[in-house]
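ok trying this again, last paste got cut off
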Amino acid sequence: NAKYHPVALYDTTTWRNVTNIRAPRETEADNALALAFAADGRFLAIGLPLEVQIFDIGANRITQTIHALNLKDDGCCIKYVAFNPDSSELAVSNSSGGAVCCCAPSCLDLKRCCVFKPNNTPIQVFRVADGTGVAAYPTAVSNVEDMRWSPDGRFIAFTDPTALHLWSPSHPQAWRTISLYNDANSLAFAPDGRHLAINNGSHVTVFEIMK
């Protein structure tokens, strides 16, 4: 049988295929839904529907599996993954709240694969070394549209259809929400972390980040 490789890794100086990273169970249910490199380039986080595989590029193998979601309690699926600046922690976002459906291609039975409940854990943070959960966003949101860790590692910014959320995982009960006029579908930090840009499809809003 052909092996199932959801992620291919290339050297961008030569465009040589360095390796193909195999799915843990080698089925289409293990589609890679999100990717993120660590800042030092040592690790690649691969978000599958319910878990994150940490791939050590130098060792050419999966070194950690983070079980981020439970289909019964959290729904499915992982949408974004992001390392903090020193690569010690990984933020993981769930796809949506309300009617949450398993997005693996093999899930065709909606009664079996869908969970009709609010998303209680839109963003979780895990320790990369051992996969332990260290923080979870304390309130539900309707749908995480995009997620980024600030360059200084102080907080995570993410958007839902109506608001920008700024959350400090080191103080899990502390967050700020800024209402937005329209659906915010992407965001980006300036390299120095002083500004945050949000795109809603028709215009871009830039916020200044206060120290």
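PB: full thing came through this time. The helical segments are 71-74, 110-113.
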